[in-house]
Amino acid sequence: MSKGYNTDEVFKNFMDTGGADKVNGSSKPKTKDVPEVNKENKGETTEVLRQRSYYLTDGLLKAITLKTAESDLDKSGVVREALKLYLADILEKMN
User: Fold this and answer.
1) I want to staple 77 with a disulfide (CB 3.0 to 4.6 A). Which of 2, 8, 61, 73 is the partner?
2) 32: helix, strand or coil
3) Domain-located, residue 76
4) Residue 28: how many CA atoms within 13 Å on its side-chain side?
């Protein structure tokens, strides 16, 4: 006879008890909020950046790397700008 687990409940319990930190061997969360610095006005922050992970194809990774070499942005900046362009209509509705 197998035990019937509610996966949503198990995941919630895992996260609530700091399970992810225990698995990673750390007592600190792996993500952090980082203020984005405005390059024109050094030191002035514009938005808070939140670290996230997404899966990308090799083609997208190469394109991001090439765009990084052609611009003054880092890879995260290239991805943010691409997403801002792609989601411009939704971002406009949110503001």
Assistant:
1) 73
2) coil
3) yes
4) 3
Is 9 contained in some domain?
no
Domains in the chain, number: 1
pLDDT at 76: 94
Does some domain include residue 57? yes
Q: Helix 58-70 to helix 75-86 angle, to the nearest 10 degrees?
A: 110
Q: How many CB atoms sit inside 10 A of residue 20's CB? A: 12
Domain that holds residue 84: 31-94
Task: List the alpha helices (DSSP H) in the chain.
Answer: 7-16, 19-24, 58-70, 75-86, 88-94
Residue 36 inside a domain? The answer is: yes
Is residue 47 helix, strand or coil?
strand
45 has pLDDT over 70: no
Q: Which of 22-31, 33-42, 43-52, 64-73 has the highest mean pLDDT?
A: 64-73
pTM of the model: 0.56
